[in-house]
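Project channel, design review

CF: Before we commit to the Halobacillus salinus constructs, I'd like one complete example in the thread so the newer folks can see what an input/output pair looks like. Taking Sulfur carrier protein FdhD.
RD: sounds good, go ahead.
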Amino acid sequence: MKQGTSLWNVSRVECGEVTELQDEVAVEFPLTLVVNGKEFATMVCSPLDLEVLVIGFLASEGIIRRKEDISSLSIDEDTGFAYIELTKEVPVVSTMEKRWIGSCCGKSRAFYFQSDAKTARTIMNHFQLEPEVCLQLMKQFHAEAQVFKKTGGVHQASIATREGLEVTFADIGRHNALDKLLGHMILHQLRNKEHTVLFSGRISSEVLLKISKMGIGFLLSKSAPTDLALKLAEDLNITAIGFVRDDRMNVYTHPERLKTDVAPSFAEMNKGGIDVD
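CF: and here is what came back for Sulfur carrier protein FdhD:
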């Protein structure tokens, strides 16, 4: 099995002094997916947890919905190929049709990719978390960031319940880290009603859509959101919380899921985001 990091000889310059040492860097690995005998896509990723990455990527692209859609999956790490046989034909999407505008769950939001319109889900559950639980989960999330601490070059994503983190994945690609979560959920048939996603990077529209495809309505990130991501979060009924650091967080959408005495007043103020002490 390939490693997620490698050693590189570097010259460190500090205060005018030069020191020769070895630095640990993230490995960048190209993986080509061959689906039903045809090359489907090549992704650049960390060579870790490749099975769940492949499954999650195919699900995110709308190629599969459940693990039973895959009849066989094998990965040749030496050549960088993953061979997948499906129980059905692969949908053909013309590159001329890739830019596609459609209604977001009957509302005004527009999708950029047709696969997103097909696979994004409006979250219907009303799962709640206390602010102190959110902060504790983020502390656990940071403690799990071993590859990042070694390299500073990967993103990290976790699925958690109020009791703690259930699974954590790291990857050089932020989308890959989230696809690994989705692949894990599909492979293990994980129920999603009372789960939270924790993420190390910016909450972009693409990140938000991947969360919706997991069917999870609670997202915690240590970073900032974009406005399109928040518009999608509003439409898809996802609670997006950013800048979860130390003892603070910004609740941007659907604050009713945050279990606190002041939560009811958030709804009136939510358009600009709420900062929680």
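RD: helpful, thanks. The domain at 131-276 is CATH 3.40.140.10 (Cytidine Deaminase; domain 2).
CF: The longest strand covers residues 5-14.
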